[in-house]
Design a protein that fits this description.
heterodimer, A: 150 residues, alpha+beta, 5-stranded mixed sheet, 7 helices, 52% helix, B: 343 residues, mainly beta, AttH-like fold, 12-stranded antiparallel sheet, 10-stranded mixed sheet, 1 helix
Chain lengths: 150, 343
């Protein structure tokens, strides 16, 4: 099962591919978390910028989809961070509070939509830790990132 | 090495790998758990298997995990999964291998060899049992049952390496339990479990406490305090014999979570752990009083199998002061303890 998701992953750190694959994994391996995530973020759009790569996460019709950033979209929430911060958070070298307070993770938006996004992120992570394929995905991107960062 | 004790453990502490459970086969869990409580360092080694029961997670698989945690001033360690192809389980024997990590029972002693892949932490230990086990069958746990076996007292020899720090262990007190059964994390249960071992191994007494409750911790399902002198179980106090008093809360500077990624999901830094935990047991002419003073906590965070919440197992290290009279003999136990508070 895990290999199906990981067969065609790129050998450069691609935020779009990471998020897209992780959502595919979540939908198949932990549908309750995926469904709740879609309910939580229904109708919302999030502009994610990870390691300089931007993408739009749009949730509609019970589907969370990733697109190239569009000038026509006014995202409800913006989140900007780096691959290093993603790994620091995953490895507990930094807490999410510390990351936000130090601007390692920058979040912009109305308070209500940011709060909704945070709940969605919590559901995403709660599902991710239940997915057998997720550690392999994270490990792949860790290796790709570390290679690219030298 | 006591040949009778070795024989008893060979016959009782083997891997069950039970499969039949009235449709609950997918709930199966089993682990071997060891705690080493030295003055400089405490260590926890747990090799466990559990069945992946959610159909959406793909083909049903048996998950094998190593939990390797140490505390030599602060908690370090991790939880590692081993792919099924690298797992060897010897049903009916005390022996398993998760990749390069192994547990064997050789000449009446447990031999553990384990190393984390992603952190500089290795253990190579030989643990000699010093007391006969206590075996409990089919205790209710949530909507399932758990069997357990406790060896309250072992001596550990070997080496633990944490980063650049090398600890040579010589006759360090240790504890072992083995649990197996069918239940799901997230069902309506919680436990408090701990042991007291004297710092000096020539002191003969050891104590194990267990309390199983519902999740809200207002209904006690099992409550026991078991006391050994030397290698022999001398007394089991139960239920109405026992009073437990919890005082205050432990407020550590930080609460490390394992696996580390769980810090993102359960960022709380105030564990639901009492600062002191006092147990008094009395029955007939026998009585025991035991005070556990919590010092530090690390959390193992387990995803519930019943919902999207988490179960937190607080591994709490601290000091034990115990004293009592059992079968006309007075004793005291001063040393290290490790308690688990499940919330």
């Amino acid at each position: 099962m895990a290999r199906d998701f990981l067969n065609s992953l790129p050998d450069t750190p691609s935020a779009g591919q990471f998020i897209r694959t992780s959502l595919d994994i979540l939908q198949v391996e932990c549908p309750p978390a995926y469904d709740l995530l879609c309910q939580q973020l229904a109708g919302q759009s999030v502009r994610l910028q990870i390691g300089g790569e931007a993408l739009d996460l749009i949730v509609r019709d019970d589907q969370a989809s990733v697109f190239a950033p569009s000038d026509n979209l006014m995202p409800d929430t913006h989140l900007e961070t780096s691959w290093q911060t993603v790994l620091d958070l995953a490895d507990a070298r930094m807490s999410l509070d510390q990351a936000v307070l130090s601007n390692a993770v920058a979040v912009k938006g109305e308070v209500a939509t940011v709060a909704q996004f945070y709940e969605g992120l919590h559901l995403y992570l709660s599902g991710a830790v239940r997915c057998p394929s997720f550690p392999l995905l994270l490990e792949h991107f860790r290796q790709v990132y570390e290679l690219s960062a030298g | 090495m006591n040949p009778l004790l070795s024989r008893v453990l060979t016959l009782t502490d083997h891997l069950r790998l039970s499969t039949s459970a009235n449709g609950k086969a997918g709930w199966y869990k089993e682990w071997h758990h060891f705690c080493i409580v030295g003055k400089e360092l405490k260590a926890l080694v747990n090799m466990n298997i559990s069945h992946e029961w959610r159909p959406e997670a793909g083909e049903p698989v048996q998950q094998a995990r190593l939990i390797l945690l140490v505390n030599d001033g602060k908690w370090d360690g991790d939880i590692c999964n081993t792919p099924a192809r690298d797992v060897i389980l010897n049903r009916g024997q005390i022996g398993l291998r998760f990749g390069h990590n192994s547990l064997r029972f050789v000449d009446g002693c447990y031999e553990i060899s384990a190393a984390l892949e992603n952190r500089p932490l290795t253990v190579s230990l030989r643990l000699e049992p010093m007391a006969f086990p206590l075996l409990r069958s089919k205790a209710t746990l949530g909507q399932g049952t758990i069997d357990w076996l406790v060896v309250p007292r072992l001596t550990a020899n070997g080496t633990i390496v944490v980063g650049h720090r090398v600890y040579k262990l010589e006759n360090v007190p240790a504890y072992h339990d083995h649990n197996w059964g069918h239940w799901l994390w997230g069902q309506d249960f919680a436990w408090q479990w701990g042991f007291a071992l004297p710092a000096e191994m020539d002191q003969a007494w050891s104590i194990v406490f267990d309390r199983v409750t519902n999740r809200a911790r207002n209904q006690i399902q099992e409550l026991k305090l078991s006391v050994w002198q030397g290698d022999k179980l001398q007394r089991i106090f139960a239920h109405s014999d026992i009073e437990v008093r919890e005082r205050g809360y432990l407020y550590p500077e930080r609460v490390p979570k394992f696996p580390r990624i769980m810090g993102l999901i359960t960022p709380e830094s105030t564990p639901d752990v009492p600062r002191t935990f006092e147990i008094e047991a009395e029955s007939g002419d026998d009585r025991v009083r035991c005070l556990f003073q919590a010092q530090d906590v690390g959390q193992i965070v387990v995803p519930n199998e019943t919902d999207l919440e988490m179960t937190v197992i607080n591994e709490v290290s601290g000091l034990i002061d115990g004293e009592g009279v059992v079968k006309g003999k007075s004793f005291s136990v001063h040393g290290q303890g490790l308690f688990e508070f499940l919330t």
